[in-house]
Amino acid sequence: MSNRTVTVTYYLDIMSSWCLLAEPAWEQLKKLYAGKVDFQWRIALMNPGDFPASREQCDWFYRRSGPMMRSPVMFNSGWLEPARAGDYQAPNHIAEAARDLGVADDTVRLALARAALHDGKKIGSLAVATAVAAKAGRLDARKLCARAESAAVRARIAASTAEFHAHQITQRPAFIVTDVIGDKAVFSGLAVAAELAAITAMLADCAAYASHAAHHGPPPTTARRRSSSAGRGQPSL
User: Fold this and answer.
1) What is the pLDDT of residues 108-159, one digit of tens each?
2) Is 15 exposed, middle or buried (0-12, 13-18, 19+ CB in 10 A)?
3) What is the C-alpha to C-alpha distance for residues 139 and 103, in angstroms, rounded to an integer?
4) DSSP single-letter state for residue 71
5) What range defines the domain where residue 33 resides?
6) What secondary structure, in 3-state letters, does 9-58 show?
7) Residue 104 falls within a domain, yes or no?
8) Looking at the 3D structure of the chain, how many domains does it have?
9) Is residue 85 part of a domain?
10) Coil, strand or helix: which one is 217?
11) CATH (domain of 108)
12) What pTM value is reported for the model?
């Protein structure tokens, strides 16, 4: 069990260009807070209507977001298949399934995202997504595909997507920063590490609470309300 006091949860969709653009920030944060913060990613599926209707429209978005984020790569809209009507769940299911086969890091999901957005591969196809992921993660393609189609993987993705919406946000990438004393910071649509500075503040607060607990212990039981030794206690005071 981890003794880290701060957790960053990254909600993403494999097909989101902004999520791929945010990856340098994600890597920077993991290096900056290595050993201090728990980092985890979860799938938050985009709605079918969130996808562009044509390659022309998709390219327009890429020409806008790429320069804004100083991307050295012009994204490739070749993955887009209008006939799918926004159904691109396959790569997300494959990325989630890879966890069950021992690849829980960023390897498979990044390979899928780059295959689509850099190379234009049509990974909306389960077969194509499986081939890309199996190669990247050195996984058995049949087992990976079967797991991606399982009820367990579908249920996990439905649950993590529901968690995303429960934060009342709509933009991906989204970073939810929580700590053991009950604080929560929500960043939706931000893709630069400097914008996530709340992590530092939360680590400092948690250290201060731990120091106080070491010197004074839990609050007196004669207080108006009992307070958790791990949490802030009475935030209105």
Assistant:
1) 999 999 999 999 999 999 999 999 999 999 999 999 999 999 999 999 999 9
2) buried
3) 9
4) -
5) 14-168
6) EEEECCCCHHHHHHHHHHHHHHHHCCCCEEEEEEECCCCHHHCCCCHHHH
7) yes
8) 1
9) yes
10) coil
11) 3.40.30.10
12) 0.82
